[in-house]
TrEMBL record:
Source organism superkingdom: Bacteria
Catalytic reaction list: [protein]-peptidylproline (omega=180) = [protein]-peptidylproline (omega=0)
Species in which this protein is naturally found: Anaerococcus octavius
UniProt keyword annotation of Signal present: yes
Keyword vocabulary terms for this entry: Isomerase, Rotamase, Signal
Pfam families from the UniProt entry: Rotamase_3 (PF13616)
EC number(s) per entry: 5.2.1.8
Example GO molecular function: peptidyl-prolyl cis-trans isomerase activity
InterPro entries: PPIase_dom_sf, PPIase_PpiC, PPIase_PpiC_CS, PrsA_foldase
Protein name as catalogued: peptidylprolyl isomerase
Catalytic EC class: isomerase
Domain PpiC stretches: 112-201
Length: 246
């Protein structure tokens, strides 16, 4: 464990190594200061801040109306965040609850199925059918995508990469589920137009509850947080005077 070394003292206020590390945590390029020279630079900055703070108090800036108003806003925001923290801190989730949630939602939320696919997006059904025939007659799918597809993936031969079940719109997903690997679909209509889909690969992995327990907990915890939040604000609203002007 690193010794919490005393680095400086300004008008009796001590600055420790831990203060420098705390300042580092809020910096995007903190790594470049994580050395002896960098620590000295940040220590100098903390000294400067203490000098500014002392001067501000001597100037009685903390008594300015503008400062007091801003301080109240900051305090209110901090209190709201603290109240949310206290609310969520009381949430308890048992393993039985998690397992029940997993069993009910494993197909839609924790799908072990992944697809690797490409597609060609066409606005007109007649043109989509024509391109489908050209591909069956020997036109390379990737070249057809580059030439005809209206989707940004056209620049990459229509490749969509690998993705889990459920992320595509319903009609596209149904098209995938009806296909064999290597197959090219007839035009599939979605809200975006007509798709020619090529299923490049499909993999299924039998993932147990224990293997993804942390992921399940994270997802379920978000749902529980939303539930207790909505329950609380609805309860509070009953005893409050709320006026909306929209």
């Amino acid at each position: 464990m690193t010794e919490n070394k005393l680095l400086a003292e300004v008008n009796g206020k001590q600055i420790f190594l831990s203060d420098v590390y705390e300042l580092m945590q809020g910096m995007q390029d903190s790594e470049r200061f994580n050395n002896e020279e960098g620590i000295h630079v940040l220590t100098d900055e903390l000294i400067n801040q203490e000098l500014i703070l002392k001067d501000a108090k001597e100037q009685k800036y903390d008594q300015d109306d503008e400062f007091i108003e801003e301080l109240e806003t900051v305090k209110d925001n901090m209190l709201k965040n603290y109240a949310m923290h206290k609310l969520f801190d009381n949430i308890e989730i048992s393993d039985d609850e998690l397992k029940e949630y997993y069993e009910k939602n494993k197909e839609s939320l924790f799908s072990p199925v992944t697809y690797t696919a490409s597609h060609i997006l066409i606005e007109d059904l007649e043109q989509a059918n024509k391109i489908y025939e050209e591909i069956n007659e020997g036109l390379d799918f990737a070249k057809a995508a580059e030439e005809y597809s209206k989707d940004p993936s056209a620049n990459n031969g229509g490749q969509l990469g690998t993705f889990p079940k459920g992320v595509m719109v319903k009609e596209f997903q149904e098209g995938l589920d009806s296909m064999e690997v290597g197959e090219i679909s007839k035009p599939v209509k979605t809200q975006f137009g007509y798709h020619l889909i090529k299923l490049d690969d499909k993999k299924e992995k039998n993932t147990s509850f224990e293997e993804i327990k942390d992921q399940v907990r994270s997802t379920y915890e978000m749902i529980k947080r939303q539930e207790v939040y909505v329950e609380l604000v609805n309860k509070l609203a009953k005893n409050a005077e709320v006026k909306k002007f929209y």
